[in-house]
Amino acid sequence: MKDVFKVEGIDYEEEGVILVLNNSGDIKITWNRKNETEVAYAREEFKKLTQKGWAAFSVGKLGKKTKKITEFNPGMNKIILVSPVAGGLA
Fold it and tell me: CA of 44: how far to CAs of 4, 9, 59, 71, 72, in Å?
């Protein structure tokens, strides 16, 4: 099975990625687990967006085992952030 969320150029043994999905295109925030500055930046961006109502999901291998999360964990390989939906059901 193909991992639909695989990001080219990411070494998942040492790195993680946040995929920020929105209507103007995807943004990728990457960090190396050994680089405290990169981890701090990814954590801060995660915090900013989730405080604005974005939903965060961790993604397991091959895009499976997705679960909603509320805390940034630099040990995660992939995190997807989805923009809040405006409005409601008519």
Answer: 26, 23, 19, 11, 9
HEC profile of 49-83: HHHCCCEEEEECHHHCCCEEECCCCCCCCEEEEEC
User: At the topology level of CATH, where does 15-82 sit?
Assistant: Ubiquitin-like (UB roll) (3.10.20)
Q: How confident is the model at residue 7 (pLDDT cuts 50, 70, 90)?
A: low
The pTM (predicted TM-score) of the whole model is 0.80
pLDDT of 48 > 90? The answer is yes
Pairwise CA distance, residues 51 & 64, whole Å: 26
